[in-house]
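REQUEST ID: PR-0412
SUBMITTED BY: lab tech R.K.
PRIORITY: routine
TASK: structure prediction, single protein chain
INPUT:
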Amino acid sequence: MDQRRDSLAVWAASQISRLTGVDVPAEIEMVSGDASFRRYFRLRLQGKSWVCVDAPADKEDNPKFVRIAQSWRAHGVHVPEVIATEYEQGFMLLEDFGDEILWPALHADSTTADDVRSLYQRSIDELIALQKLRHDDLPAYDDALLRQEMALFSDWLCERQLGLLLSETTREMLKRVEQVLVDAALSQPTVVVHRDFHSRNLMLCADNKIGVIDFQDAVAGPVTYDLVSILRDCYVRWPDELVSDLVTSYWQAATGAGIWNDSLEALQRAFDLMGMQRHLKAAGIFARLNLRDGKAGYMKDIPNTCRYLRDVAGRYPEFAELCTWLDTEFLPVLANKLTGSQT
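STATUS: complete
OUTPUT:
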């Protein structure tokens, strides 16, 4: 018996009955869970549907989610309308953006290279709209948070998941790498950062717009963070030529919007180093989701995430020590411990 699901169904049905004047059965169907404690369900009625969210109040900051949703929607970012809330129980009723997520659309048999480019261009357009918003009411993506995130790599992935014993020399090397990445991140222009702006959190809506979901962890931070999230997505890998072309497209749009005021070369370096920070974080989070939360499905994404880290680090001489360690110690252990992974 799932008491929270049943309570959510009764509450959502009552809210929709109030809005529509129609008696609504308290019947909901599972849509998905995610990497947090939230669960999503759908309630249908006469050809219409709504998303019902179970987000326990002691684990999720639902008022923050609602504040962001209402603010962004009012300023033209395509996020779901918040129809009703019950903060004490941790329930929300949202506009339904449907089931078409960007990720499967990118990989459908009928999708052409031009389709892929077009979908990413539309996503970049939505990102530019997001980055134009005010950010002074959001928490700062500061030095402490950047370092805390990167520490997940050595703690959860290297030591706990892989059983790697990191020498003092290796720890010092990783600290130097982290310092370079923190300095690079904090030197960038500050904008609204979604933090998970990628192919599993972007929707293809019926009105042909890109819908943005899962934005409750938004912060004010480095301008390239969300660009890395979408173009060097942990769940997919595209040819370098396509990524480079899309970075150029973003640079043109961001320069025109006054978001970025430096060269394309400077943007590329900022993008690369921001990606290293994010992939250290993401690889650690995937291991933590497995070990702490019992969500083993993310383990298959660790090899791709770590390949990004090695490939980008290899482009910059200041990361030569990191590359040597990755090649001789980390990647062989990763390949051995993660059965079936390709590194």
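NOTES: The mean pLDDT is 93.
REVIEWED BY: pending
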